[in-house]
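Data availability excerpt. The first of two example chains:
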Amino acid sequence: MKKLFLLPILLCLCVLQAFAFYYTDDNGVTWTVNNYNYNYGGANHSYYTITAAANYGDEVVIPETVYQNVSGTPTARTIEAIGSNVFMENLTLTTVTLPTTTKYIDGNAFYGCTGLTAVNNMDGVENIGGSAFRFCSSLASVDLSSCQRIESNAFYDCSALTSIGSLAACNYVGNYAFRGCSNLQAVDIHEGTTIGYYAFYQCSSLKTVGTLKDCTIGSNAFQECTSLTAVDLSEATSVGSYAFSGCSNMTSAGDLSAFEAIADYVFRNCYKLDSANLSNCKTIGQYAFCNCQKLKSVDLHSVKSIGTYAFSGCSSLEEVGDISSFTTIPNNLFSGCTKLKNVSLPNVTTIGVGAFSSCHSLTELELPSVISIGQSAFYNCTNLNAPQITSTSLVSIGSSAFSVPGTITLMTTTPPTL
């Protein structure tokens, strides 16, 4: 059986080798070239591809034309792609000049080239493969003006990268594509682009992102972009969890009235976000607006489901609209909302742990339907006077649920569990 398998393997190796040829340029560099097929943009592309190089220095000029010996005749071949792993982890490489005909850079092509400062002639490249420039920590700028797809991890931790040119042609930015590019200052995302998760995570110098119209924005896509001051999500297709979490200087996210759902943690720690139109929102995830300290009012009248800590720490929040239809107040939903004024809770049956803790501006409270009040639910509500718990169905009150002076009125005939 071993002999039967061996022959096909040897034939495959021979076929692969037959496609490769070698070319030595005027600088003494020997290039290995293959004719490879690549699929992107909905089509197959056959490119002569540099797959290996030998005897090159710190500054590399890749030839545009190489010659293949075909039946004894030198035949010109145009280089249009750089293959995977060709220059991977070459720590001394400083400058690469691509052929002007280059359309594709395959995965890991320049991975870990920490001394690489410049890659010339990238303005015609249409597709950049996964991790192609990952950990190129000295690379200062690239021109992606013709790029249609940027695959996952392509520029991951290129910490010196300040400029990438235009993304007007790009319709896909992969997961982690620019993660940790802490000096990248601006991108002009084109409408309809798919932005992968963590695509611009921790791009702490990023100030502008272009249009997000019809864009699909993945989870954590712009998380901790601390220099980002405003985005317009009014026509975005979808926004994933944590997408703008930690954007501590962002003041505006645009008109959110078209959103029926806000994912978990989307705007958590957006300390300067001062408005959010949620008039048509039906679902708000946990921690969605947690610590949005400048947010003054929201309209929650359409909300059917809301997660824990959704507005916790919103210390400027005064109004939340009509929430009389709510039957449950989740844990810590409004904890630390020190300016939140009176709320109407006629249908609430369950109030979670810490739900209104430290709501110092809350002065009146009536709970006609409540069954359960969680631990510390109204703890440190220093101006809450004589709460009226008129429900006759109250079953339990958690420890430290209230810390108010005076009397709490209970109407239940059966003492609740404390």
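And the second chain:
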Amino acid sequence: MKGIKHFYAILLVVLVAGSIFSCAPSEWAVKIDNKYITIKEFTDLYYTQNKILFAKDRAGIDKMAKDLESLSPRQRQYYGQMLDKKLFLESVINQQLVFTKAQDDKEIDQNELKTVLKIFEMKMLSSYFVKEKLSKEVKISIKEVNDFYNKNRRLFRNLPLTDEIVERIKLNIQQKKIEQKSEEYLKKLSDKSKINRSGFKEYIDPKKKNKKGWVVKINNHTVSIEDFENYYYTEHKIYMNMDKKELDKLAKDAKGIILKKYPTIKKENYLQGLVQGFLVYDKAIKELPKEVLVPLQKLIKLRAVNAYYVSVKLKSKIKVDEDTIAKFYAKYKNRAKFLIGKPLNDKTKMYIKRVVMEQKFKYETAKFVRELKDEYQIDRSGFTDYMKKQEKKKEIKKSDTKTDNTKKKTDTKK
């Protein structure tokens, strides 16, 4: 499900429908001004996010978090962003601050935001559902683990095959197998469904300029030309920070490394992902239990509003001019793989622009969130108390286990 790799989906709600805050709860993780995120809300978000990423249950996620210290600094930094609860809390706080700011911003285009929420819900729920369904079918043998390890010893710096490394290898193999199985699953699902793409052929025909018809019919869904263009241009506006004119120019002759990095800029590819999204989304809504669906929808809502709001507010700050592009090319033309041997033509300029914009976007987003934090009173003492209680429980459990083992040895001697 290549179109679902972005891992973000949609909630069919409006922005003002509510938030994850509770009023004066008995157990809370963080207080932002006079509103709270409860411990349950926080832990639900934590495990839901990591289940999406790693296709593991709570026990499996806890084990991965416990093993963080045994990883290399680089790996610890990568996995820690998701598995370290303290770091994850900061991520939730950051997202909630942006969410709250967006609620108060009267300049936001509510219709466009609704489209964003639809896109996010479809993709994220679909991604979660497929991983959850197929992970149960994936089996990994010891031979597969050993073969992977022997072929990739450099990745592990020739370290011995410890339990922690075995788990990492299994995760890698599992993700690849799920991706392979998802293609089979989607094909079977498509074969059982009623899909009519004839409208798309007319839509992309340059000789026909009808913009009031439909693009595709998927079971009981009819995607109009207007809806399709809203999905296509809004999603790429967020992920690529490009307006309609810029995107059409890039998509017109996209091939090679650009098409590989951004496959959905081709409308044929985007349509395929959209069809798959609708098919899986319908099953996810019907089959996911409420206790899974509710925290997943809350996470989706946070992600969707954040992605949209930040991209809109920072657009003017991440523009890239011709001088910046020329300097980047002069500096990296003999070092960056995508530039070696390439002339500074329109296509090269477009790709350089994307790279520089992504760098600027990361920097400006971090700056934007830091400034937001100065506007609110943030109390994390609830989370600190929660973590202390968790550590105490672990110590008690460890002590009880030690006592039981000692008793067993004594009984054996007798």
